[in-house]
Amino acid sequence: MVKKICCIGAGYVGGPTMAVIALKCPSIEVVVADISVDRITAWNSDLLPIYEPGLEDVVKKCRGVNLFFSTDTEKHISEADIIFVSVNTPTKTCGIGAGKAADLTYWESAARMIADVAKSDKIVVEKSTVPVKTAEAIEKILTHNSKGINFQVLSNPEFLAEGTAIQDLFYPDRVLIGGRETPGGQKAIETLKEVYSNWVPEDRIITANLWSAELSKLAANAFLAQRISSVNAISALCEATGADITVVADAVGKNTSIGPEFLSASVGFGGSCFQKDILNLVYLCECHGLSEVALYWKHVVQMNDYQKDEVCRAWVVASMFNAVSDKKIAILGFAFKKDTGDTRETAAIDVCKGLLREKAEISIYDPHVTEDQIQRDLTMNKFDWDHPIHLQQMSPSPVKQVTVTWDAYEATKGAHGICILTEWDEFKQLDYKKIYDNMKKPAFLFDGRNVVDPEKLREIGFIVYSIGRPL
Ligand code: NAD
Ligand code: UGA
């Protein structure tokens, strides 16, 4: 019988996942622990550290009942039956494999803490996305430090997407649990399965060996990202030929073997995981001598970089007479997708940095991203965002050419052009006539998300560029 669960890492995965476990398993005490005092303080306040539809409701129902947020990681590890590890697994920024391999520093320090403080048998669950064979490394750390304690390592990758995390956790497509093919490993799998059985139908819980579970997570993200790079590659051809990507994607997706989801052409995929996980997969392939396989996956990331660059270079700069210096460009949407305030690897960073190199003045509006966050994103080096150590050392001086407002009309006032970079629903409802009247002419609109109806905006007077659609 599981009485207590501890989760190390109170981030986008640890927080929502544990809140839902607490809600669905009232007899289990769930503690989410983190080294970040600020994050834990926020989890214990009325202003949660992440914006996620439905999350506040779940947290309010359980917090202080059977859900707790704490910085006392050691205490809660020692008391728990199951320990989830949901810390960041960023891309390495230096040394062997820099720019590709996963940096397991945070994972290793969590494992060492578990080994040091555990006084009874534990199930240790990999919730973070990790390279295949990480469980073997973790087992070594745990068993070499233990004092006769039995540790079972399970792989239970998380498949939630931000913006829909609570729905994804309530009704998962699948829950994947990998473990050792030994009696102890199988018993541990059954124990974790019982936790999920409180709300997930039996046929949605897949059990596997450790390596299949670890690889399935990287493979799933690579397949999803590949679809976006594929549709974006076709969108470039649409722009060159006069075809319309919305029609092409609809026609292609009607084949049930392909399906309609995840075929929206865009300014490029962002988020904390796709790029990092594919690069991790590329590195794994290279380490196993599979150079052609590595190249295949690498191109999914390269296509994404191309897409982000093209929006700045071929759309904004080229169409505005190759001269955007000192021109005001409004950016609508900075988050990497709608319904989240998360900006990690958002395409908006690349587009804005490109415009700043051209000396444009940029004015940004996003309903859920703060000025402080935007300034940090625009001054940080690639991959540094996921390394708490770099963040602590940083005291950025703000980029002067950037202003951030909480109002779309203010952001666009006096602008020469507008770039829509996140598909927030509210951007469909804006009064574009009013916006047009307050802009410099000719007024350009670059829709990187196919949010607006280009014909209607052209009728107002805008010069409209939409991803993969005729000019
Ligand atoms: P995050 O950065 O939001 O959260 C990680 C947390 O771990 C941070 O708050 C950090 O302070 C904490 N931490 C790091 N080392 C620690 C330690 N030794 N002890 C205690 N706390 C520590 O990251 P995230 O988005 O929640 O992602 C976590 C993992 O889950 C990653 O491997 C990611 O690839 C994977 N994942 C993320 C998503 C997503 O949508 N964000 C979805 C599925 C899987
Ligand atoms: C993604 C996966 O969807 C999750 O299954 C996975 O668990 C998670 O990564 C993870 O491992 O972190 P997430 O990154 O939160 O989830 O969001 P997505 O909805 O996948 O969007 C990722 C990016 O792709 C966004 O920038 C989004 O705008 C873009 N996208 C998505 C497109 O450009 N077109 C699409 O059709 C779909």
TrEMBL record:
Entry's PANTHER family?
A: UDP-GLUCOSE 6-DEHYDROGENASE, UDP-GLUCOSE DEHYDROGENASE/UDP-MANNAC DEHYDROGENASE
Reaction equations catalysed: UDP-alpha-D-glucose + 2 NAD(+) + H2O = UDP-alpha-D-glucuronate + 2 NADH + 3 H(+)
**Record: residues binding NAD(+):** 9-14, 34, 39, 87-91, 128-129, 162, 273-276, 344
Name the chain's protein. Answer: UDP-glucose 6-dehydrogenase
Which purpose does this protein serve, as stated in its record? Involved in the biosynthesis of UDP-glucuronic acid (UDP-GlcA), providing nucleotide sugars for cell-wall polymers.
The protein's GO terms of the molecular function aspect are:
NAD binding; UDP-glucose 6-dehydrogenase activity
What's in the keyword line of the UniProt record?
NAD, Oxidoreductase
EC numbers on record: 1.1.1.22
* GO CC annotation: nucleus
Q: Which residues form the UDP-glucose/GDP-mannose dehydrogenase C-terminal domain?
A: 330-454
Q: Which InterPro entries match?
A: 6-PGluconate_DH-like_C_sf (IPR008927), NAD(P)-bd_dom_sf (IPR036291), UDP-Glc/GDP-Man (IPR017476), UDP-Glc/GDP-Man_DH_C (IPR014027), UDP-Glc/GDP-Man_DH_C_sf (IPR036220), UDP-Glc/GDP-Man_DH_dimer (IPR014026), UDP-Glc/GDP-Man_DH_N (IPR001732), UDPglc_DH_euk (IPR028356)
- Upper taxonomic lineage: Eukaryota, Viridiplantae, Streptophyta, Embryophyta, Tracheophyta
Q: So where's the catalytic machinery, residue-wise? A: C273 (nucleophile)
The pathway to which it is assigned is: Nucleotide-sugar biosynthesis; UDP-alpha-D-glucuronate biosynthesis; UDP-alpha-D-glucuronate from UDP-alpha-D-glucose: step 1/1
Q: Name one GO biological process term.
A: UDP-glucuronate biosynthetic process
Task: State the similarity comment.
Answer: Belongs to the UDP-glucose/GDP-mannose dehydrogenase family.
What enzyme category does the UniProt record give? Answer: oxidoreductase
